[in-house]
Amino acid sequence: MSELKLTASLEDYLEAVYEIIEEKQGVRASGISQRLGVARSSVTEALKLLAAKGYINYGRYDVISLTDLGEKKAKAISEKHKTLYGFLSKILGVEDKEANLTACKIEHVISDEVNDKLINFIKQYEKERSKKVSK
Amino acid sequence: MSELKLTASLEDYLEAVYEIIEEKQGVRASGISQRLGVARSSVTEALKLLAAKGYINYGRYDVISLTDLGEKKAKAISEKHKTLYGFLSKILGVEDKEANLTACKIEHVISDEVNDKLINFIKQYEKERSKKVSK
DNA sequence: TAATATAGTTAGACTATACTAACTTTATTA
DNA sequence: TAATAAAGTTAGTATAGTCTAACTATATTA
Known about the structure:
The structure is a homodimer. The first copy, chain A, is mainly alpha-helical. In chain A, 70% of the residues lie in helices and 3% in strands. In chain A, strands 1-2 form a two-stranded antiparallel ribbon. In chain A, helix 1 packs across helix 4 (68-91), helix 2 crosses helix 3 (40-52) and helix 4 (68-91) crosses helix 5 (96-106).
């Protein structure tokens, strides 16, 4: 089963699978390839690994779907991305594209706990901010 | 000269060189090895690369020192680490050890610009915070 | 339905990083 | 100063990730 933990790279593939499923009906290797800007063969490799680790259902030339584990994990990564993007763009004022690129990298290196603390901080900060503006 | 840009891994080695020089008189491969928890042979490889890219002065069995470029770069990384650590621990309330580990990873993926914006945000935030407390 | 286009896979090469084991150089000390 | 210990290096192996080129399967359409 080749170790369950995911590398940053595999997390990117998993996230792409999740997001494309959200946007369209299903996922295809070519879509992942385009979204991530990598060769189709790299996608095949990544899908094999994700399947071996239990994150997706997948076999040669077959349909790709998320397992429960995969869905949970992908949601968690996607959440982190949103939190980070929001903080970077809305609070720090980082330009859109860079905020996105930066969030894409940080999302793989923060724990769930740090993400939760950041979410709470943002909520708190925006509450106080709105009070101040309206007074 | 093998490309000037540094990977996250090489940035870690460079940072270690810089910090050890700050703390003691000089650096030795063994000290870097201990600090980063990697084999001595890995340090040798990394030092060769850092020298080839112009960040350190170094030759076989010789003393290690930072070039101007290396010093500048190391300081920049170290700065980012401090900013991130401060934000994570003081503002988000992340526990010491995790704040440090997380900062160690994020420091390689944020631009100077994002770092500057974060520094300004922290200053601003702490100013307002102190006003509120003292009123 | 046969020809062709598209999608997907495999094989082989390459880069980066790190490891262990063996070897060399430098430093210490008996 | 010769023997030994410590530090540093090299060689060879392994893993992860990516690529290109060639091949196979599936889908489209004339």
